[in-house]
Amino acid sequence: MRRMIQKMTLIAVMALFSSSLFAQGTVTGRVMDPVAEEGLIQATVIVSGTSYGTTTDMDGKFILNAPEGEQTINVQYVGFKSYSKQIVVIKGETVALGNIPMESSQIGLAEINVLANIAVDRKTPVAVSTIKAAEIEEVLGSQELPEVLNRTPGVYATKGAGGYGDSKITIRGFDQRNVAVMINGIPVNDMENGWVYWSNWAGLGDAVSSMQVQRGLGASKLAINSVGGTMNVLTKTTEADKGGSIVSSMTSYGNKKVMVGLNTGVTKSGLAVTFVGSRTEGPGYIDATYVDAWSYYLSVSKNFGKKHKLQFTVIGAPQEHGQRDGSQYSAQTYDHMEKWGTRYNPNWGFIGGGEMLNERNNFYHKPQTALNWYWQINEKNFLATSAYVSTGNGGGSGILGVGSLKYGAPQNALGQRDWDYAVAVNDTSSTGSHLIMRNSMNNHFWAGALSSLNSELTENITLTAGIDARYYKGEHYREVRDLLGGTHWDDQVNHNAQVGDRIAYDNDGLVQYGGVFAQLEGTFGNLNAFVAATASNTWYGRTDRYNFARGNMDTPDAETVTAFGYNAKAGANYNVSESSNIYVNAGYYSRAPFHNYVYINYGNDINPNLANEKIMAAELGYGLNLNKFTLRVNAYYTNWTDKWSIGYIRFTDEAGEEHNGTVYFQGLNENHTGIELEAKAKLTKNFELGGFVSYGDWK
């Protein structure tokens, strides 16, 4: 009897379980970023109050089993507000939610996208890779921001010589001078030489909302350095939700970092404030590449009615760090690595009984402040305007020597600088120091304004037009940092130079820029096409106080030089089906030369052969988006003519004296061609496999 009761109980339980198992329906949908017009990968979708849940696939789509009855579907994704919807699930049936547009938790992000010229997948005809905040947070770790982009084809980023913030990035074989870097649509490449110094933005990764790399001429409407590509960094703007966070981390080699984030959310008055700050310190991975850095990011936004919004942002990263010289004259050999290891740094040693002294140090603070005004004029016209100011103060250290110490203190048996030997030589010298530490200072003031009007001319055609104005003044000089036990430094102008005195050179570089741009974009069914053009004028100036003091010129101010530049580009994207698209683009760019090539011979001499560089580029691409598989493949061609380049040499004159010299190369030509392929496959719910292949022929 007992066995019969047990069997009947077991049958009842199994029947109940079977009933609950099949008393369910299916929910489908696609989680969308409405601004980028693309699906959000790995968004979390759950049935509230149950264990039912899933994540979205490569195209933002999901299929979710849900219990029968009234249920609440909840969707979450980093950087977006949570989405909830009540539905009724019927046994055996499917509830199709369609596209689910997620609302950004960041105030003003859509407006910044207008200034930043963000490309849209399956619409903008360029090769593009977008990295969202969730992925950046997952992979950044102790890496620097450019290194995250190694996950995209055609991009190669390294830590440079290994110091904090010394990263370098190339795209399609073009170095940082020819890759446009923008933060919230504001260009940050140095206006004199095009370089980007990542130590100036070392804390930027903590405040990034997304990064987009547009390879080739890109979608930017500005006349920028996008020969190889454009790197667009969007910060978190202002968070709509109130809250905060504290994150602490430490590397295996001893660098420590603490980050604090605070958000007020939107107050009753419509004001919102977001702050992110961090502190990083430690010995560094490479010998003597210590780091002592701070970073801060502040965003304040305020709505004025329904048509006007003001947003104020300030970002900066004051820092000091040790470096390892990456020049050709300090290149490390395989023997060095075998003897002293991969962390070996030949630029440091101990001085005065145990104090570490690295001859290579970088110290800088470059805050950037921007005030953005967004005006929704009417339903068809939107104006985005940004006024910004950036100041930079700091530089890098090195050595200056004469005689037997011209190239620095000798190395001891450990491969380190024998600073005590140099101090002993200086201490006994009657003619001043034979070797000193110097600072090469590079201060600047940069102000600009960028305004872009977006106007819907018809239902299918949009016009974007605007202005871009910039003013830049760079102050460059050397100063005595440390006399290393000597009484003075004998400079050509100041024969009794003391610590803090200016030596070797002292000049200002001036660049003023004014440009206009316009783009027509049309969407006709599955076809999206655009044509764009930019015209600009650049004014160059230079003031040389040092050579004027030496008597080498009649006036310290150089003659003003002007250069006219322009570009034109066009492209089209055609969506063959819901899952595949093809695109093509081409452009021509007449680029005004960098300031470094305008005035030559370390003075105010004007380059007699000055001419614009010419770039012609074309690209063809294909995209495939399936539920569990995506593919991107593109081929590109870039021809660069009348290119300028500069080289530095050491030579010995007839008297046996060694000198440093500069060589200017004119009329160089380059051809960059290649193929890029990127693919991702979602093999299981929790396992995704991706990879890319890039082949380039650069000559």
Describe this structure in words.
- The chain folds into 3 domains: 16-101, Immunoglobulin-like; 106-235, TonB-dependent receptor, plug domain (Ferric Hydroxamate Uptake Protein, Chain A, domain 1, Beta Complex); 238-698, Maltoporin, Chain A (Beta Barrel), CATH 2.40.170.
- It is built from 6 helices and 40 strands.
- The strands form 8 sheets. It has a 6-stranded antiparallel β-barrel with strand order 21-22-27-28-26-23. It has a 5-stranded mixed sheet with strand order 10-15-16-13-14. Strands 1, 2, 5 and 8 form a 4-stranded mixed sheet that branches.
- β29 (435-456) and β30 form a beta hairpin.
- The longest helix has 21 residues, at 2-22.
- It starts with a helix and ends with a strand.
- Mean pLDDT is 88; it is low at 1-21.
